[in-house]
Design the sequence.
């Protein structure tokens, strides 16, 4: 794992996620990955007329689907490098009979890779998000893995440049030590904590509650 580094950015960035692949995909999911996914990857020209929301590390995409339904006038982009998660989302947003996108999910775009590659790509520089969600980022609990945590100050500064005026970064984690670590990282950014209270959002990972804490903690951050 230590040797798995991303070299897309000119600088070396460590891998922040675990597996890329799980069990073999069903024929339907494999078809969706090959045929539908390329049609709904994010393209920056789409955002010139519509506001946009980003969810980073959507897992199987339950929360992303809620975002799409609750924000029909927004483009909702999800980034997730775990292929089985992407395939699960594709399966959930399409008709089983003919594999077409369900109407309520036509505003979803999927980036099936590390979000940092997307955010560092030149054509994305002018895109702004009103909300950026990061729910249960991989906690990397061992001290020697701490440098793999996604929400370090460099990445938070990168996200802050992508916010609209009054835009928000919404973070949730049940790993309280990571939560405190993020608050420390904020000191090296201009982001401000707007709120720490949010109704608990039920995601797949949150239900597993691997950290064994009584509830997730939230941070709503903004530039203003
Ligand atoms: C612990 S899981 C949580 C998944 C989901 N948000 C939930 O709450 O069920 C963290 C997810 O973040 C993804 N992830 C980690 N680093 C990422 C990155 N650099 N870009 C996009 N996704 C990432 C992982 O692949 C993993 O699916």
Sequence:
């Amino acid at each position: 794992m230590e040797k798995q580094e991303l070299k897309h950015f000119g600088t070396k960035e460590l891998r922040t996620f675990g597996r890329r692949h799980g069990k073999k995909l069903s024929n339907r999911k494999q078809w969706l990955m090959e045929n539908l996914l390329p049609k709904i990857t994010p393209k920056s020209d789409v955002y010139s007329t519509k506001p946009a929301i980003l969810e980073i590390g959507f897992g199987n995409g339950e929360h992303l689907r809620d975002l799409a339904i609750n924000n029909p006038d927004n483009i909702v982009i999800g980034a997730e490098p775990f292929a089985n998660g992407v395939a699960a989302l594709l399966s959930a947003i399409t008709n089983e009979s003919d594999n077409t996108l369900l109407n309520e999910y036509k505003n979803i775009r999927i980036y099936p890779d590390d979000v940092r590659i997307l955010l560092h790509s030149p054509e994305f520089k002018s895109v702004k998000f009103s909300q950026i969600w990061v729910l249960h980022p991989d906690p990397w609990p061992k001290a020697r893995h701490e440098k793999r945590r996604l929400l370090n100050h460099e990445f938070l500064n990168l996200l802050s440049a992508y916010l609209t005026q009054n835009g928000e970064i919404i973070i949730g984690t049940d790993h309280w030590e990571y939560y405190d670590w993020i608050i420390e990282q904020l000191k090296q950014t201009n982001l401000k904590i707007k709120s720490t209270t949010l109704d608990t959002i039920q995601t797949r990972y949150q239900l597993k509650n691997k950290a064994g804490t009584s509830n997730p903690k939230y941070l709503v951050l903004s530039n203003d």
